Amino acid sequence: MTNNILQGHEFWKETESLNNQTNKWEIPNQIKETTNKDYIKSLWNTNREKEICLPKLKVLDLFSGIGGFTTGLERTGYFETTAFCEIEEPCQKVLKKNWPDVPIYTDITKLTGDTLKADGITPDMLTGGFPCQDISIGSKTGDGLDGARSGLWFEYKRLIDEIGPRFALVE
Question: Is 132 considered catalytic here?
């Protein structure tokens, strides 16, 4: 198998081809002719929903806002948000409207790995953009990570340590 053909998502990106006459996804001719064509055909499935049979990664979205990370991740088809943590009530209303069955925790300083386990939430990935006002170049106080807002990074880090997710996406 050659690495240049099957490198991560690049393989799928280069091989996707929609046949406009049948409206089905097909393997392009240049891929059909490769020396690894039998292997590649075994990976391919014209039913796009079964193309890659991977379980969705479970996401805990911290500092969720109105769900920007969640929206992007879920649109890929490979992620499922299992909980949010957002303190702002207007944002919570948007989250509740768009994800009515996903629980929302309101205070990251009180959220623990044990609480999540007790609620049946075992995320594979944590996402979130912690407040950056205190570390911003535009900050008037210059408190950095000692600031009340940006210091919430340490709560994010605490949850990473407590939960031990496979991945953490920090913005």
Answer: yes
